[in-house]
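Structure, all two chains, one model.
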Amino acid sequence: MTSLVLEHVSRWFRNVVAVNDMSMTIGPGITGLLGPNGAGKSTLIALMSGFLAPSAGSVTLDGEPLWRNESVYRRIGLVPEREALFDYLTGRQFVVANAELHGLVDPGAAAAAAVALVEMTDAQDRAISTYSKGMRQRIKMASALVHEPEVLLLDEPFNGMDPRQRLHLMDLLRAMGAEGRTVLFSSHILEEVEQVARQIEVVVAGRHAASGDFGAIRRLMTDRPNRFVIRTSDDRVLASVLLADPSVRGVRLRSEGGIEVEASDFGRFSEVLPRAAREHRVRLLEVSPTDESLESVFAYLVAP
Amino acid sequence: MSAVLSPTVSRLGVRSVFGRRRGVLLYVLPVVLVGLAALVRGLVGDDLLAAQHTLQGLGLVVVVPLVALLATTGLFSPEIDDGSIAYLLAKPVRRHTIVLSKLVVAWGCAVAFGVVPVLVAGLVLRPSDPAFGLGFALGALAGGLAYCVLFALLSVLSRHAVIIGLVYLLIWESLLGGLLDGVRWLSVGRWSQAIAEPVADVSLVDKLGAGYSVVATLVVVVIGTWLTSRRLRAFNLTGDE
């Protein structure tokens, strides 16, 4: 059983706190690290892969510290977010070099297996400089898998992949999780995380906002109050009707026209609104959610 | 894990020096040195002072440090800048193995594009006196070894290693080294000249022994390598945040 344990970890850069007192245990299986851009996901992955010292707290792999301990890389595979690679090498040369650096007995065979696993065998003899974004992502993946690590850390691995590559990588991650490896990947897209990971850790603005199984996280994210701006042919009538319904928490007439509605039960509200409009012969001119951005969803999660 | 050198790191290093456009500059500098030596020889004949000025002023002061700067920063800086050094560092390989494997490549470049051209230029300038060229070549070797280590350390400390390296060469080694006498005790360039002196049988720097210079060069090489490894051990890979 391999587990990566963070205990009260904080990391600040001068006066900016990137990671604020986070504790989590990443065990075997797939964990998704979800959060908006700039939330501290990359900082967390750097801490987990020994590329950053925690300012406070500890990061350990089965009790061993990650920082200043190069022997842990026997057990860890890292796929960094940055795209830079050794562009002057071919894909195969790059993966073979990674295998050699791990001191593998047969670097050529290990590299061939890893390259085949990410379906890059056809392009392996081309220079990396000619690769597309998705191909780079896959060759990075092969370099991280070449020594069959117990722990695999991936920073935004789905970025730049087309849907087919995305599905393939998802299958690959699922297979690795099923083998009992500890796999952690970061993403800012809920749907992406949900499709692969059972366990989700949500980070927002450097704080650990939520942790749990994807169903629980999904409920947290969708059961929040939703706000809409609605423009109609008769704002006042619709406002009074909506306010009578239990799915609505508040209605406000906007001075510039239209009404602002806060619904507490999104499912029910989406049925009530058209029915009420039809019954009272109010034309709906526009219905638009005002806070559907992921940032606002996350902001809701961390609201005190 | 226990190996002192990693052939893989060195091989990648060679490709990164010569795979980039500025690798071409490495060929230009020795050609300029040997070409100028031939020109001097043609114009003034076998003249000790002219030969000495050419090898000291152009060889030891310009070509050797610049070759070291180009080769060493080419080995370290681009990988650090674009983060690809993470692929070397995320391996169970000791940091001093990585640093030494890269330094071996840098030192190889310093010998091939600095020391050997100085030797050749010395033979062109004074074919009657091979010890002359050999002495300067020894000085070039000592300077090359120390400069490579200094620039390696600079590369892991700063993202502007090339600029800082050039400023250091111009201000400290050239300008202050010429103005202030005391700088000779702390100048890689002066040490390399002092090391050239006894073998080449010339006088380049006052009051600086070859013995002191050899020891000082070794101290810089050992401590610089150790500091570079130490710094690489604490390498921060941070994303765009």
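The radius of gyration of chain A is 24 Å.
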